[in-house]
Amino acid sequence: MPVHSIFVRAAAFGGLALLAACATPAQRITGKLTEYGVPPAQAQCMGDRLSQRLDTRQLRRLGEIGDLNRDRLGRMTVSDIAATLNKSGDDALVAEVVRTGIGCVL
């Protein structure tokens, strides 16, 4: 394979990887919530709001829900997510997820 071709492929792959890494926090939250089972429109609304209201530690905790509930992925409600988060003892995180979930349904 010509050296030029290798560089072109490497650059294309690098560009795709860079685009994936450029997802905003809101987009990553939306993707996770949709993966958990929250309807897409509600997940997008929640992602936009939660990205502005949660700190890095809380965002990480929200991202770990799927690891704790692999058997329920795709079938979780906001209430299920809140119940799992409640085990972490972060009342502010639970309250924000519930408040945002309700606000995004109305």
UniProtKB/TrEMBL annotation:
Presence of keyword Signal: yes
Which keywords has UniProt assigned to this entry? Signal
Signal sequence coordinates: 1-20
Q: What is this protein called?
A: Lipoprotein
